Amino acid sequence: MSITTNDVQHVANLARLALTDEEKETFTGQLNAILKYAEKLNELNTDGVEPTSHVLPLANVMRADEVRQSLSIEAVLRNAPDEEDGQIKVPAVLE
């Protein structure tokens, strides 16, 4: 597979980029070099290699969900800049 300057122009149009002819030529060469390098992967013998979605095993790194004591309403409202009827009062964001 090979990238042409028309392909680069098409992608540039989709990305709303204005490219000069020199930039199109540069990107065409760079993208073709990337594809050529990726084709080297086809030369690898992958018999017996199990398909994976990640190179490393994934594990849940989150802490266990535990019920803990939360702050009292009085403690929370002491830190609030303003309160009304037991709730934090904030400036209106909608008119």
UniProtKB/TrEMBL annotation:
It is an enzyme of class 6 (ligase). GO terms for biological process: glutaminyl-tRNAGln biosynthesis via transamidation; regulation of translational fidelity; translation. SUPFAM superfamilies: Glu-tRNAGln amidotransferase C subunit (SSF141000). It holds the Pfam family GatC. The keyword tRNA processing does not apply. Its EC number is 6.3.5.-. It comes from the Bacteria. One of its GO terms (molecular function) is transferase activity. Allows the formation of correctly charged Asn-tRNA(Asn) or Gln-tRNA(Gln) through the transamidation of misacylated Asp-tRNA(Asn) or Glu-tRNA(Gln) in organisms which lack either or both of asparaginyl-tRNA or glutaminyl-tRNA synthetases. The reaction takes place in the presence of glutamine and ATP through an activated phospho-Asp-tRNA(Asn) or phospho-Glu-tRNA(Gln). NCBIfam families: gatC. Heterotrimer of A, B and C subunits. Belongs to the GatC family. This is Aspartyl/glutamyl-tRNA(Asn/Gln) amidotransferase subunit C. It comes from Paenibacillus cellulosilyticus.
